[in-house]
Amino acid sequence: MRNVMKYLGIVSVSLACAGPLFAMGVQPFAGVSVVQQNVVTVKGQVVDEKGEPVIGANVIVEGTTNGMITDLDGNFSLQCPVGSTLKASYIGYLTRTVKVSGAMNALKIVLKEDAETLEEVVVVGYGTMKKSDLTGSITSVNAEEMMKRNPVNLGQGLQGAAAGVSVIRSSGAPDGGFSIRIRGVATVNGSSDPLYVVDGVQVGTSIDFLNPNDVESIEILKDASATAIYGTRGANGVIMITTKSGSKGKAKVDFSANYSLQFNSNKIDVADADLFAKAVRESCRNGSVMTNLAFGEEYIGKLNNIDWQDEMSRTALQQNYNLSASGGTEATQANLSVGYLNNEGVVIESYFKRLTARANITHKVKDFIHVGLNLNYTHAQHHFSGNMRSYAQAIPTMDYVENGTFYSMPIVLPDGSWGHYKQESDGDINKGADNLVAAAKTRTDQISKWDRLVASAFLQLDIAKGLTFKAIGSYNYSTSGYDGYTPYNPRTFGSKDRKDSYSINQNQNSEIALESFVNYDWSNDHHRVSAMAGFSVSDTDGVWLNTSASDFPADNIRQISLTNDPSSKTTNGGRDLKTRYQSYFGRLTYSLNDRYILTATVRRDGSSNFGSGNRYGTFPSASLAWRLSEENFIKNLNLFSNLKIRAGWGQTGNAGSATSLSVPQLSSLNCMYYMMIGGSMTNGAGIAQQKEIDTNLKWETNEQTNIGLDMAFMNNELSFSVDYFIRNSKDLLIYRQIRPSTGFTTVYTNAGHIRNKGFEISAAWNKSFGDWNVGVRVNGSTLKNEAVEVGDPIFYKNNSSGGTQDGDDWDNHSITQNGYAVGSYYGWKVAGIFQNQQEIDALNAQSPTGKYQDGDTAPGDFKYIDLNGDGQITDEDRTVIGNGFPTLSYGLNLTASYKNFDFSMNMYGVAGMDIYSYSAARLTSMYGPDGGYQNVLAEYVKNAWTLENPNGKYPRITKGDHNKNHRASDAFIKKGDYLKISNIQVGYTFPKNLIKHAKMENVRVFVSADNILTLSSYNKWGDPEVGSNRVLLTGFDGGRYPFPLSISFGASVQF
Questions:
Q1: For 628, left (φ over 0), alpha (ψ -120 to 50), or beta?
Q2: How many domains does the chain have?
């Protein structure tokens, strides 16, 4: 677009040389009546933000007709009265004003692109539209501003960038991913991730393979009127990405290098060795047994303290390099790029490496025939992740007493061998405790790798005026695998039962797709019509295999068959059912006088996942827009640059996890069992139905209504957008209980209904003051999620919040039931802490079993609430105790530039969110792996209930959990509100006259900081940014790899 403007500028300059200026009614060198002694000469240049000259810009003395347009180098020269104001303007840029204080010979006026201009073109499904014609809810993300966040993946760049788009980092690991959700969740058994479309190719719900440096533009399609064109794959929203392409003209080469130092800034304040020993002594007062006498009072001040969080952390270096070349002729244009990322990771022995390569090539065979090729290849590997909460809970000393002798145990002994914990009488070393550093250093070859290839080619025929045909063929291939050997060192690793092991797994997935569509555009003075119709077909296939074994005759053996223990061998593998999608789609847009706009779409999708009677689903949408700012009664107000009302309705589909569940399947596993003489159960040979099948299984349906208002003022310097949406997800694919007489207990069927609704608001302000350019962008959104009808409650039963040491009490800690949010927290309510035995005895006396609470309840234990009033605490007293959906999410972006300096800052946060803190439960429990001890929060030791401190805020300290104080309860529901300053960057662009002799077009250097500050009451338990790709675990925190603080230095050069 910038090149087009330059050509228009050249034309306007030529016309100006032949006669009077037509732009703004300005006539060259036309004078006004001024006092001559106050007139001075002002010479200068008008440039854009990249320092490129703006050809044909209007420069005028405000309030007069004295002005001119800039020449081919952007230069101008005017006679101006002192005290007057110069105004510079150009189509697509914000107007700048400069006060004339005296003669100036080298004034530089920088024009900033008008990001809100109504003529901006945005990418939509199977085409583009002018922003002024949009009738749906679509948010554009400025890729140039995004790159100032210094992102290494797309999720990092999108955080806080768009209203209604939740982007939560799931881990601080070098390869850590993001959970991205648009307007809540729409299913309970499938994915809630959006669809990504890159250069017109649907690449699925993962975008990790894409280098952010290759991105040209991003559009986020949020409501059904915008996403229905993608039918079943657009149920969770669509993120459209356009990568950089070549352009006509001489070749340009861009190189950037970025170096980051990363620090672990998320340490948890746990007990040191002496405070831990004090906690052990207190636990012994409450019935525990001290197996290591080094924790006795006689060794106070003598213990060797080990801060495992420090020992497992390091200052890490991240290196990021990108090289690209672009250019082309009239017929052929190309953009080629490579990128390399090497992130060491702040946890020792962890790392992530990624290599990307991309090629975008287009060629004009004839004036009416265009072809193109897009290739993207990514190779990545990572090693070791880690959980900082588990490091924090390692016992802070390995010192021990054995046979009356005190042994001081450092991490590395003087002879170079590894230090270790005390060996217990049954052969275990402190019931499974590890020297964590030794474990990390000796497990250096557990590597995960993945490769991704996305290739596409297109053919475009310009058949007639306004009529084009385009066909896109694509191949999307990914493979991932793990190859890991775990050695065994009996003096390093805890359990005597541990043996060396080796495992390997491999996954391969591929998709071949073909899409073809026709576009037709027609217009006259009052009417504009755009129509599109198309067809697509795709085939997917997947293969997986994993195998493992343990107990090998020597170290580092990587051959499963050589195991000493054949029974340890496990091999699983299979091929997913091949899936085919076949679709027909179309869109019609009509505009009357550029004021009244109608858009309608329809898509009919077919999938082999469903039975023959329900394979196809039809998903329509319709939306309207009224541009009131084009009405005379609004124009006459001279208030609005833009005023538009939007309303839309539409449906999309979702297959959930329906793969093969509508097709009857047979298996030899579910065959007949019968009783033999003597009472033993034996199975007979044969094949039986594997599970009950609902042959009427069909698509989930997402129905969404959206109402929006867009406003802009002061020549688009200030803009607002407000949207209200309500999204009903019906016919959800869920399991329902059935009669036992069928031989099965459940059936997968269409029986659920979820609703998401909320408001979204975004605002932007851009203003120029002399050499200053200032920009502010803010967005916010509310969300209410509710399970309207799901039948029987749905539980999450995998104990996946980080593992459990407390039995089944952590099972079923997530519930989805009518009237509550999906994946609500489920557990008991706490009424306080028992202060004396009399309280306990009084409640026991009223219980039908003689015990109010199970276990050996004692003073200092939690007192749970008997919700059903039966006199005892049972599973029936559990209830919903919170949920992980924030009421409010928001983001803020600040930008500023002064001459050659630029500044940006990004913040984001949430409010009204609960966190189910498994970390809080573990950090207030000394009950560790295999029944041994583990470290706890320092605050817990200092503020636990004791006889001397009956007002303690935490329950009594015990090694065991006789009262199950750490069961799922509202004691561990924490406020999850937070505000993060995620990035601050300062940059400097060198003047062209300093670099042109080195044949460089542009040089910019910058320094930035990431993950700078988190304001939250949750910080003592960990980072409050809790993400999960599992819908039913939204807001659960089991501890993660720490989010590092990063300080970066970088430079970019264009030749």
A1: alpha
A2: 1
